Amino acid sequence: MRVLLQRVEHASVSVEGQVVAYIGKGLLLLFGVEDSPKMDQLDWLCQKILKLRVFKDEQGKMNLSLLDLQAEILLVSQFTLFADTKKGHRPSYTRSAKPELAKQVYEMMIQKLSAALGRPIQTGVFGANMDVQLINQGPVTIMIDSELRDL
Length: 151
Description:
Blueprint: E1 2-15, E2 18-23, E3 26-32, H1 41-51, E4 55-56, E5 62-64, H2 66-69, E6 72-77, H3 99-117, E7 122-123, E8 130-145
Helix pairs in contact: 1-3
């Protein structure tokens, strides 16, 4: 599983011109599921996201987590995070999970993040053509790959 995490001032998702999700200060998470996800990595990934110190403290150092600030989360399914661009000019997505499996894992991620926060998170619409708007604060953009957790 991969997450492209972006620290945002605000972010939103629209489907067919209608805003379906909006957050203020927090994290926009683009979430991709590989074709053979290791489900035991889901808890690790959730804790990494929630505790990652990417927000500035009083001294301007990135020393605070999403939990410290009670900031918001917007989770968006993103199968293209596993794009293979080695050959030719058209990306291959064979490493991405099939939609049925990816949706199950995406819904589990929503449940785990919401439970850990003690409140619902905002989400995109799985499988929809979404327009994502954001103000990336910093900018801070970090890739987290659950397969690399023990390296």
